[in-house]
Amino acid sequence: MAFAFDIPSLLLFSAVLALAVMTVRRKRRCLPPGPKGLPILGNIFDVPKEFEWLAYQKWGREFQSDIIYLNLAGTPAIVVNSAQAAHDLFEKRSALYSDRTRMPMLNELVGCDWHFVFMGYGDSWRERRRVFHQYFHPNATTSYRPREIKVARELLRRLLETPDDFMIHLRHMAGSLILGVAYGIDVQPKNDPYIATAETALHAMSMAGNAGAYLVDYMPFLKHIPSWFPGATFKRQAAEWRKATTAMVEVPFRAVRNAMAEGKASPSMIVSLLHQLDEDQDKQHRETVISGVAAAAYTGGSDTTVSAIGSFFLAMLMYPEIQRKAQAEVDRVVGRDRLPDFSDEPALPYVSALVKEVLRWRPVTPLAVPHRLTSDDVYNGYHLPAGSIVVGNSWAILHDEKTFPDPEAFIPERFLNADGSLRTEMRDAELAAFGFGRRICPGRHLACASIWIAIASVLSTFTLSKAVDEDGNVIEPSGEYLSGSLASYPLPFKCDFKPRSAKTADLVYSSLAEECE
């Protein structure tokens, strides 16, 4: 059938169309500034696949705006580049900005819907967050300090014996702590199967959670295409990754449940939670909650610890004068006849400032896990559409020259007063390093404590320096990092760990013997 229009109808249609175009353009002008994109696809080709935070920081400077706007194939996205904007939106307006963007690749295809960090803001998230908080709030985490000291001293022993494997030792330390706290599992000295399973799953989650890497996150209908379909490589990859994430949740949980049945389970978060189950509760649902919360504890704690201490090692190679200052403070307070413990922390402000600077200088998660705006909002005169992905750019916030002059330099003194005491008002580094608002990382207290005791212990016992090759030439570390959605790590580098005295080995071994008594 042919369509025919009279002149008045055409004029009316043209007027309505012109009005619609003007309205859209006017609304677009009210959006935050950002790079001009393509029709329909928007900015999906503008967003780099790696180190996105650097591009977002660059655009923020280019457009002279704390927030920038991107169109991701029809999905609006807001990037928050300043501490003030992050506070105004994520803190003051947390009721609007506490939801999560659902990522089909991670949540559905890879099967990470058990992880409460990626859950939407609702009852399921609250239930899991409440369970997690029960064991990881500040007062609760002090009970884990003996274990944190033990794994830190075990790290020292490993660095004495096989220093070249320092990154492997960091992963063992982090895994040992979390598996002990959450599951009561004592890991094997080498090639522990639980750590291996978790590391495979962490890699899968880091890849799948890389915002912008998979078209299915912008076009969810693609999740329904068959795996054999041309271009469906992402589905085949997701199926393999799903096996790893499922194993991380189920394998250690099943081991603990079996140990409980045999009366051999060690005290842990899971054992405590399973003992709390009432007969009138939905057992299957509660066990799903418990197993997911325990696995979430591993994913959060392991990445944070390994990344931060790896960055500390790198910083000590690049800034040896900082290492000497920190060692001098440790020697003055602790001495050379024992190792640091948490009772020394108040008297070691320079070490604490150094830890804060590590988290600022190379933030573990340069981009926070994306939030979702649940209703229209206005900020600084800009229209922020409901349904927007809202991402806190931790890197930009922690490298803001106005707050942190010379941000690329490693300067612990920026967190100290003139008298050497800690600047209590400098909280941006800790907050931005662990997320924002109601979705800030709930395991940050355990992570910060384990990072502090490990760094203080290493400073007490070793001097780190650049390695040399067979010809005596210094091997310069590149200082470059791997890009990842869950955590960013230094690229592999060589490091020489020199015991600070002839008594170092005896001190480390004797301290471990005391822990075992």
TrEMBL record:
Q: Report the main location listed first in the record.
A: membrane
Q: Which residues form the signal peptide?
A: 1-18
**Record has Mitochondrion as a keyword:** no
Instruction: List the GO cellular component terms.
Output: membrane
How does the record say this protein sits in the membrane?
A: Single-pass membrane protein
Name any cofactors this protein relies on: heme
Q: Which Pfam families match?
A: p450 (PF00067)
Q: Where is this protein found?
A: Membrane
The entry's keywords: Heme, Iron, Membrane, Metal-binding, Monooxygenase, Oxidoreductase, Signal, Transmembrane, Transmembrane helix
Q: Which PANTHER family match?
A: P450, PUTATIVE (EUROFUNG)-RELATED (PTHR46300:SF7), P450, PUTATIVE (EUROFUNG)-RELATED-RELATED (PTHR46300)
Q: Which family does it belong to?
A: Belongs to the cytochrome P450 family.
Q: What is the recorded name of this protein?
A: Cytochrome P450
Q: Which organism is it from?
A: Trametes coccinea (strain BRFM310) (Pycnoporus coccineus)
